[in-house]
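--- STAGE predict ---
source: upstream dedup step, 1 unique chain passed
mode: sequence only
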Amino acid sequence: MQLLDLRQMQTRDLEGLFEEEIGHWRDELHWDYRASLDLIRRFVDAHTLNGYVAFEDHQPAGYGFYVLEDHKGLIGGLYASPRFPQAEVTDGILGEMLGTLRGTPRVDRVEAQIMPFGAALDPVFLSQHFRLYPRQFMLLRLAEAKPKGTPLSAGLRLERWSDRNFEACASLIQLAYANHVDGEINDQYRSEAGGMKFLRNIVILPGCGQFLPEASFLVRPLSGDAPAGMVLTSTVAESVGHTTQICVKPGYRGSGIGRHLMEASIQALRARHFHSLSLTVTSANATAVKLYEDLGFHTIKNFAAGVWQA
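--- STAGE serialize ---
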């Protein structure tokens, strides 16, 4: 196996891999990955995307890329074709990326949330000394949803997302994920500045599909302006939505806000003739998993979020 710098490549060298990857996202996750790959193609052709491509017998067998952000590296993609020895390819690419990141000044953390297609990635991450957090990719057929019409408690109101909510919701993220397992997985959740970066990636940039404000909501107390909870939704394929964020402020948990937000999003998607809604959840968050299962979600894929810390 030969590893080459991704910045030496043109998209025409990788089109076979890209088409395979699109098929996996479509068939296994009901996700149209073409928009994400269009962005990847632009960076590849500009020779600005950090990463590596593995070749077997002069054929591209897999590729991976990473992004540098302050003190950490974020592994943004890692795909190995099932036509080649996937474990060997992923181990080689991940090892090379992590070796480069370990040698980068100030980088002391690497995060990865990579969907496995055809081969288990956990052994590869464990061999590179990542700590793993099991997660679930869940899907709801909206025709089979089981909403209960959960009312909000007195003193709370539901409102649709507005761009004026960025700062307040960045603060909500920090509060909601303090001492939470998801704050261990994604360190953007630990500060208002990180929460703002996360929100901009979801709402303004194509970080997770096309943002859908019509199915994104906040709950606020009648007597105040700071939100008590929020749900954000994007479109990831024709008539398929994805819950990109749902959180509730400590002190309001257990009052049905999370269920009410999810039911509001489901109702909005149904009104727009969507047929499915997906989300990801950390398995250790048993309360959230139970809520989603009660609403009719089913786990269709298991994967792991990985964190390497110096």
